[in-house]
Amino acid sequence: MSLGQDLAPHLPFLRRYARALTGSQQHGDNYVRATLQAIVAAPDDFPREVDARVGLYRMFQGIWASTNLDQDENDGVGGGDIASARLARITPRSRQALLLTAMEGFTSEDAGYLMETDAAEVDDLVSEALSEIERQTHADVLIIEDEPIIAMDLETIVRDLGHNVTGVAVTRDEAVAQAIAQRPGLVLADIQLADDSSGIDAVKDILAEFAVPVIFITAFPERLLTGERPEPTFLITKPFQRSTVKAAISQALFFDSATVPA
């Protein structure tokens, strides 16, 4: 099997990580594209001593660490001054460690390899990121989910994080009505809803009324991580872990609340 075939199944999840790390589909996908270009240009540099997924993320981490985020946005990778201001709000390495372990499921040892450090430092960085999360401003959260057990689980996680749940909607129309009645600061949205309507359409309707960060929840993340069309920046895979939801919520709110200093 070729290297390209080995890497293909892992690309959707690298896009998820890159988007969560940058807070943008465009910038995240640009970093993934740059990573693939680097692999094609120098295939012998790809780490063969580890499995394909770990090697792919290691190549990405190298691109991320070596790129100057203050460069002009037109260069296709850099996020410009706005992204730089946002990234300054929390130690970048602590967020990387949290996302690699909580969202991408790497062990502390593997995350240490990816970040060129050891497992002990990864654990310290994750603790640092979690401390930053505790200091985040609490938000009103709308949950769009038609499965009662999953909805209750999400509601418990959201409330345990100190956020308020404005409501739980099970259809597109109900979601839009609740969002307009009590504007949320964050939306958690399933893809397939009770009346066969779409959570994606519900979110589009809400975003037509006002801007709000959104985290999509789906059992088929690869369908929304192709990089070929407008797609979610933040995405949670079903079945999910509490730590994954926590990391995604913290990242979405972090980028939404960040502003450029005067």
From TrEMBL:
It comes from the Bacteria. SUPFAM superfamilies: CheY-like. InterPro entries: CheY-like_superfamily, PhyR_sigma2, PhyR_sigma4, Sig_resp-reg_PhyR, Sig_transdc_resp-reg_receiver. Residues 140-253 form the Response regulatory domain. The modification 4-aspartylphosphate is found at D190. PROSITE patterns: RESPONSE_REGULATORY. Gene3D superfamilies: 1.20.140.160, 3.40.50.2300. CDD domains: REC_PhyR (cd17540). Keywords: Phosphoprotein. Pfam families: PhyR_sigma-like, PhyR_sigma2, Response_reg. This is Response regulator. It comes from Sphingomonas naphthae.
